[in-house]
């Protein structure tokens, strides 16, 4: 990243010091100890150990990458040194922690932690082992950096697969055990015992880890040739059959999504529902922020309006008694749903009108205020008889379609409902993006004044972005209200707006698949790793910072944003001489 | 016949009078230059015409339509397009998309049509794309349509900006220093191109320019601004000899020496 090269020794020291600092921080925060409860590979690597290993490997690797490429030995040495320096911090911490009592300041600085960091060994040997361990991890990272791209990718994919499956082991186990298709099959039972830790233990077995790693990395290694092979084979197909191919792929994908809840079991289906609610919101916010470039920090307000509309229009707890609201028509879910969407859409337009002239920071502040106003109104005494104040609204209607839904568990009903909503919203978002409207949004995002000067109607363009985003949030809110079964003001705080914005940013602004991936990563994973929920926002924040530094375009950027951030020369850079071949859109490869 | 007329235009910024009682008549199908030293009020006047600024006094009319007080997009829809002194493309959109946005005033597709992608919307989108390709070829950028605007070389960016302006099908095109930052060769190519715009498309051109070879080479009329006031107007040959112009550009002493 830096153009100026410093000496290998300095580089190693610097990277090692950062690694050590991070490792000490995570240890004192209690993450290492808490995460040690979970094994990734049974009895070999716990998630807590993985944290330390991960840190040393990453900074060992960045030490190697900061050095000239032609000196492999020096690079490896530097990464080993970085790992050693990193572990020296931990050794220092352990010694300090055992001499003095740190627990007054750091409640997590417990003997258990020292024991963990010492690998359960006793004093002098333990410290040597720690330093050696650091060197080993550093070299591992350095080795990764030395590998060619062709091999590095698959190795990383393999490790990720082991970590993911190891983490999700108990869920996979439960899902398999609770599925009537699998539970009785002896083959599944044998495989299960071979791969997964049983009973109270967690993680993969050692054999399982090796197999998962080999399979994942081999697949990743062969992927490019498999893909090009498939492509060349489809190329020779007659045109008619080639046109059918995407339909077949889509069909298989849709069928997979449709039968998925049968395999997921009730808990994971519920998690998917939550992820889809956030996906709906994020897809809406993506239009406002990603397409039109209007920073909206009060987005949760529209979610709230959708939820409250659903609540007021459908609740049966009406009459003004304790815990009841005064008026409600008692509509069915399906009658109330369009009202909820329409009302949110109107609210979007109403918010849009006064803020038309505002830009950037100012817009952000005003929308922030709007979000809070809606929440405080919902909480206020003035509207208590209508929306229930802090007691909220209970018993909103559930979606039902007679016999069709009666046979399904409620999670499945919401799963299919949300799946349909997400599909519809994606469809609308894509159509709008690829239309005249989408171009106008992009133009406004790029340069509002010039957009207007070439004839774009600013008012309708901006209002439409607000309205479309708000309607999607309203839809999400209405389904959310029904699914949760109660509507309370505290569900609609600022944090929710920020979370949804984080999904859009982490996923990749303006990218529809990115938004879905972002919702999965930021809301699917934490739900699955519930026992670590106290570290959720720390990880969230760290992830945001790391992303913005290393991958500002998001996890799955729109092809255009990738070009924006990683190639080409900005308008302020020196203009290239005429005749020099302009860089082609290589980013899409 | 004058296509654009301005009468007694006044624009102040605080105490500074940027344009003062400025009258201008731009004849239809002419190439008309506005020149003057830096800070003379040329770009300010352009901004008044296109609706970026609202002048404190005076009137501007295009073909009899009063422009003062109209929003920029309305003025564009009436038939005035412009380019900018410092290029202002939609940097992170492709060249084709830039032009397509410029075609917006002539599009009819609504939001419902866009979602259902009706037959008429599909047809319109197809035509929009073809028109954008045609304009790209016209300005000599054929084949570069899928590059991001910011990745184009400087000279091509200037051409793309003109293509975007042409997409609005203007009657009057305002060019703000179209040859700024160009070498001799590029400048003469641009000069020939501007002449083609008028000769082939029949568009009236109003241009701000510092390069005197360009100004004297292609303009039928030259208007000279200094400190916001018009100090001379006429065909290039007269302007070149006008002592007040020489004084404004080179200072009082040099004007005296030249006489």
Descriptive keywords:
heterodimer, A: about 600 residues, mainly alpha, 2 domains, two-stranded antiparallel ribbon, about 70% helix, about 0% strand, globular, disordered C terminus, B: about 260 residues, alpha/beta, Rossmann fold, six-stranded mixed β-sheet, four-stranded antiparallel β-sheet, 10 strands
Please, could you describe this protein's structure?
The complex is a heterodimer of chains A (589) and B (259). Chain A is an all-alpha fold. Chain A has two domains: 8-225, no CATH class; 253-558, no CATH class. Chain A has helices at 8-28, 31-35, 47-65, 72-99, 111-117, 123-146, 149-167, 169-178, 180-183, 186-195, 206-235, 239-291, 300-314, 333-352, 360-379, 384-387, 403-406, 410-433, 436-446, 448-453, 458-484, 494-507, 512-528, 536-550, 559-566, and strands at 39-41, 45-46, 393-394, 486-487. In chain A, the strands form two sheets. Chain A has a two-stranded antiparallel ribbon with strand order 1-2. A two-stranded antiparallel sheet of chain A has the order 3-4. Chain A starts with 7 loop residues before the first helix and ends in a 23-residue tail after the last helix. In chain A, 42% of the residues are buried. Chain B is α/β, with parallel strands linked by helices. Chain B folds into two domains: 2-79 and 170-258, P-loop containing nucleotide triphosphate hydrolases (Rossmann fold); 94-167, no CATH class. Helices cover 42% and strands 24% of the residues of chain B. Chain B is built from eleven helices and ten strands. Chain B has a six-stranded mixed β-sheet with strand order 6-7-8-3-9-10, sandwiched between helices. In chain B, strands 2-1-4-5 form a four-stranded antiparallel β-sheet, covered by helices on one side. The mean pLDDT of chain B is 92. Classes of the chains: A mainly alpha (589), B alpha/beta (259). At the A-B interface, helix 18, helix 19, helix 20 and helix 25 of A face helix 2, helix 3, helix 4, helix 5 and helix 6 of B.
């Amino acid at each position: 990243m830096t153009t100026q090269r410093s000496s290998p020794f300095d580089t190693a020291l610097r990277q090692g010091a950062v690694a050590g600092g991070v490792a000490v921080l995570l240890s004192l925060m209690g993450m290492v100890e808490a995460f040690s409860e979970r094994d990734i590979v049974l009895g070999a690597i716990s998630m807590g150990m993985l944290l330390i290993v991960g840190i040393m490997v990453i900074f060992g690797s960045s030490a190697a990458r900061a050095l000239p490429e032609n000196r492999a030995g020096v690079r490896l040495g530097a990464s080993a040194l970085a790992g050693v320096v990193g572990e020296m911090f931990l050794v220092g911490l352990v010694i300090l922690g055992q001499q003095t009592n740190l627990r007054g300041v750091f409640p997590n600085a417990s003997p258990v932690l020292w024991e963990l960091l010492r690998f359960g060994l006793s004093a002098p040997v333990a410290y040597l082992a720690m330093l050696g361990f650091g060197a080993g991890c550093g070299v591992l990272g350095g080795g990764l950096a030395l590998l060619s791209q062709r091999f590095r990718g698959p190795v990383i994919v393999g490790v990720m697969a082991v970590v993911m499956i190891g983490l999700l082991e108990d869920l996979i186990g439960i899902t398999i055990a609770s599925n009537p298709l699998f539970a009785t099959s002896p083959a599944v039972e044998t495989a299960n015992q071979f791969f997964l830790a049983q009973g109270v233990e967690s993680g993969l077995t050692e054999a399982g880890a090796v197999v998962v790693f080999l399979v994942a990395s081999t697949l990743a290694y062969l992927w490019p040739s498999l893909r090009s092979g498939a492509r060349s084979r489809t190329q020779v197909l007659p045109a008619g059959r080639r046109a059918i191919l995407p339909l077949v792929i889509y069909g298989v994908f849709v069928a997979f999504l449709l039968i998925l809840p049968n395999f997921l079991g009730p808990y994971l289906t519920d998690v998917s529902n939550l992820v889809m609610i956030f996906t709906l919101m994020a897809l809406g916010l993506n239009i406002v922020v990603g397409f039109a470039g209007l920073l909206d920090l009060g987005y949760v307000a529209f979610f709230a309006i959708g939820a409250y509309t659903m609540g007021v229009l459908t609740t049966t707890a009406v009459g003004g008694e304790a815990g009841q609201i005064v008026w409600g028509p008692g509509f069915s879910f399906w009658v109330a749903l369009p009202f909820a969407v329409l009302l949110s859409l109107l609210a979007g337009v109403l918010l849009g009108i006064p803020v038309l002239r505002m830009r950037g920071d100012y817009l952000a502040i005003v929308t922030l205020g709007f979000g809070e106003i809606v929440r405080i109104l919902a909480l206020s005494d003035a509207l208590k008889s209508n929306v229930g104040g802090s007691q909220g609204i209970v018993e909103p209607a559930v979606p039902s379609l007679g016999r069709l839904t009666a046979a399904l568990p409620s999670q499945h009903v919401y799963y299919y409902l949300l799946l349909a909503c997400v599909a519809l919203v994606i469809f609308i978002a894509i159509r709008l993006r690829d239309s005249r409207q989408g171009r106008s949004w992009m133009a406004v995002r790029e340069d509002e004044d010039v957009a207007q000067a070439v004839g774009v109607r600013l008012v309708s363009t901006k209002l439409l972005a607000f309205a479309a985003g708000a309607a999607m949030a309203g839809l999400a809110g209405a389904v959310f209200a029904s699914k949760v079964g109660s509507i309370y003001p505290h569900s609609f705080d600022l944090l929710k707006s920020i979370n949804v914005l984080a999904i859009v940013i982490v996923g990749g602004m303006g990218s529809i698949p990115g938004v879905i991936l972002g919702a999965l990563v930021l809301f699917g994973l934490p739900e699955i790793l519930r026992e670590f929920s106290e570290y959720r926002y720390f990880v969230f924040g760290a992830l945001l910072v790391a992303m913005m530094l290393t991958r500002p375009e998001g996890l799955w950027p729109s092809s255009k944003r990738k070009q924006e951030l990683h190639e080409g020369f900005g308008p302020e850079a020196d203009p290239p001489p005429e005749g020099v071949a302009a860089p082609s859109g290589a980013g899409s490869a | 016949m004058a296509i654009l007329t301005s009468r007694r235009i006044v624009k102040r910024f605080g105490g500074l009078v940027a344009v003062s009682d400025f009258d201008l008549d731009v004849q239809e199908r002419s190439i008309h230059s506005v020149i003057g030293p830096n800070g003379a009020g040329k770009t300010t006047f352009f901004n008044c015409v296109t609706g970026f600024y609202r002048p404190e006094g005076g009137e501007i009319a295009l073909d009899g339509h009063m422009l003062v007080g109209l929003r920029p997009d309305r003025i564009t829809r009436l038939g005035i397009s412009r380019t900018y002194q410092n290029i202002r493309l939609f940097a992170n959109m492709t060249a084709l998309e830039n032009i397509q946005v410029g075609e917006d005033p002539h599009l009819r597709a609504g939001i419902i049509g866009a979602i259902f992608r009706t037959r008429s919307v599909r047809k319109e989108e197809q035509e929009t794309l073809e028109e954008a390709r045609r304009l790209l070829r016209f300005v000599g950028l054929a084949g570069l349509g899928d590059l991001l605007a910011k990745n184009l070389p400087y000279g091509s960016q200037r051409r793309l900006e003109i293509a975007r302006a042409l997409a609005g099908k203007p009657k009057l095109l305002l060019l703000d220093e179209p040859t700024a930052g160009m070498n001799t060769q590029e400048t003469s190519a641009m000069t020939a191109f501007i002449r083609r715009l008028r000769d082939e498309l029949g568009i009236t051109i109003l241009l701000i320019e510092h390069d005197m070879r360009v100004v004297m080479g292609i303009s039928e009329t030259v208007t000279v601004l200094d400190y916001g006031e018009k100090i001379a107007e006429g065909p290039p040959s007269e302007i070149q000899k006008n002592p007040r112009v020489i004084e404004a550009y080179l200072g009082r002493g040099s004007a005296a020496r030249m006489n």
